[in-house]
Amino acid sequence: MRYLLVTNTYPPADVSGVGTLVAELAREIEAAGHAVVVWTRTASPSDRRARPLGGSKLLFPLAAGWRFATAPEAPAFDAVHVHESDGLFVLLAARLLRALGRGRGGARLVATLQVSYREERRAVRAVRDGVAVVSRPSGAERRFAFWRAPLLALAGRLTARLADVVVAPSRRTASELARDYGAREVAVIPNGVAAGVARPPDARAGGATVLYAGRLRSRKAVVVLVRAFAEVAAAVPEARLVVAGDGEQRGAIEREVARLGLAGRTELLGAVPRAEVTARLARAVVFCLPSIYEGLPLAILEAMAAGVAVVTTAVSGHPDAIVDGESGWLVPAEDSRALASALIHALRDPAERRRRTEAAGRRFAERFEIGVVARRYLELLAVPVAGR
Question: What's phi and psi for 87, nearest 5 deg?
């Protein structure tokens, strides 16, 4: 089978969850005996699977669609797998080729959509801790909600309609895509990452380090984590908070750290290379993601693979990965007291932490290891397209 993957972002030039997922899927699908090509904007010259198209992020969807419409190799693909609505014009070109009868009956068209942008637009709002507003969207975030999110939602809806099958990374996302995009057939295949080398969770150099890694935008609710950490710091004297990432809410986070007197216990790394995040994860005891909205973040899966305890909110795809009381801790969003209680439990009770991280490791190996995820995609492609 000849398998085409289309993604706007791709490592090492672009560090993103989607790009990382595509790179690892490409490797696994090729290892299964299939010919794999990746169309993207930029790629390392040593990456023999990648075909960089160049240009800007904004124009990439058009460039990829034109390439598919005109490249001699396009009709020969058996599977075309686009990620997000950046593959909209590729799917449109593929549909036209199918209508014209070019190629061998047309490739099976798969679109993986990580979120509903209608739902993400709703998540651009003031973040609360209980009844108190603790952060508000920046101007850039409000502009995203005003014009970019509606365009992305429209593109996502068209992508969902043009694909033979839409893939969502979680059950919650699948229901959002059916509701917001009118997706008629949504398969749930989780995101995946490569298995890490896990260290015993109680032999970590970090002692009692709580790590957050990700973009600092409103929906990540990192200010709520800082407020929770004030309680953690009082209960666990050796506890430290490390925040890796940058973004629109950095100023609000810095102000909250200063207001609560946590500067000596908190390290704000800013944007750091992926290798640095991996190194920090290896030294952490707890990974915390306090978001109010997500798809299924790779960061949670990477923590599970590395043997790091996960404390996160019971939103979006998080419950698909973390079972509260079994493989980690789930708490309500926008509730610093509940978050603090879970973090203190995870830090103070090494036996319970070990039990849950070991269960998380087993769950990861069964469901989220990239080889397992790649097999799910290959099984999906073996199913005939119904009613098309």
Answer: -95, 10
Could you identify the residue written with the tokens 């490592």? 11
- Other Cβ atoms less than 10 A from the Cβ of 251: the count is 11
Residues 171 and 217 in one domain: no
Q: Among 223, 78, 54, 208, which Cα is nearest to 138's?
A: 223
String of DSSP letters for 189-212: ----B-------TTS-TTSSEEEE
pLDDT at residue 326 tops 50: yes
Q: Which amino acid is at 47?
A: D
Mean pLDDT (the chain, rounded): 93
Q: Indicate yes or no: pTM above 0.90.
A: yes
Q: Which 8-state DSSP code applies to residue 184?
A: S
Assigned domain for 258 exists: yes
CB count within 10 Å of CB 346 equals 27
pLDDT tens per residue, range 18-69? 999 999 999 999 999 999 999 999 999 999 999 999 999 999 999 999 999 9
Q: pLDDT (tens digit, 9 = 90+) per residue, 176-191?
A: 999 999 998 899 999 9
pLDDT 10s digits, 232-282? 999 999 999 999 999 999 999 999 999 999 999 999 999 998 889 999 999
User: Tokens in use for 307?
Assistant: 């043997």
Supply the range of the domain harboring residue 89.
2-193+369-381
Identify which of 12, 15, 9, 21 has the alpha carbon closest to the alpha carbon of residue 57. 9
The single-letter code of the amino acid at 191 is N
Average pLDDT of 75-94?
A: 94
Residues 75 and 95 in one domain: yes
Q: How many domains is the chain built from?
A: 2
Among 106, 115, 43, 108, CA closest to 85: 115
Token pair 């990452």 is found at 193
Using alpha carbons only, give the angle 39, 43, 48 rounded to the nearest 5 degrees. 75
Give the angle subtended at the CA of 278 by the CAs of 277 and 284, to the nearest 5°: 85
Closest of 363, 324, 57, 373 to residue 188, by C-alpha: 373
Let me know how long the chain is: 388
pLDDT tens, 374-384?
A: 999 999 988 54
CB within 8 Å of 35: residues ≥ 6 apart:
1, 2, 3
